[in-house]
Fold:
Amino acid sequence: MYHIKNDQRAARSAEAIYVALVSLMEEKSFATIKVTEIVAQAQVARATFYRSFDVQEDVLRWRCDQILDKLFVYITRFVKSQPRTASSALLKPILRFFYLDATFIELLIQAERIDILQRAFQARLERLGRKAVALLNVPEDYLDYWFALRAAAVVSMLVQWVKEGKRPAPDELADGIAELAREMSQANLMV
Structure:
């Protein structure tokens, strides 16, 4: 778990640690990177690392949460500015956001830690989704499974898209997936 204080010095230290980790990942695999290497590269004390993070994965979790905070602000603005008519309405802003910068997803793929993105994405979906479900008066029996399914589907699709060089274009992919989902649903082939 990460626990970064809300002050500029702690934020600068956390950022230096993240930059050092990324730099080290250019040279070696994530699994082999030690805290001592990170703090040496970041030029911070070992205590500084442990004041903000418990383990190396926490550095990635912290950055993931920062990115997802920005993503969900972007999604909110997008949804408010668009008529909600297509089933791809939420997928388009996600793809557009990562089209501009998928560096973090590439980093997680390299580290073989895409699970960090999936867990963080699912946690946000659960928080937002439970508020929406309360308004809709929908039974909650299978909600945890629904959130897990949606998070896994979106993250897996993002990973595949990044591996494919972010092709096709975001809107084309979102519309294509929405159409495929409609066809699969009509053919009763949805899982």
Summary: The chain is about 75% helix and 0% strand. The two ends are 34 Å apart (CA to CA).
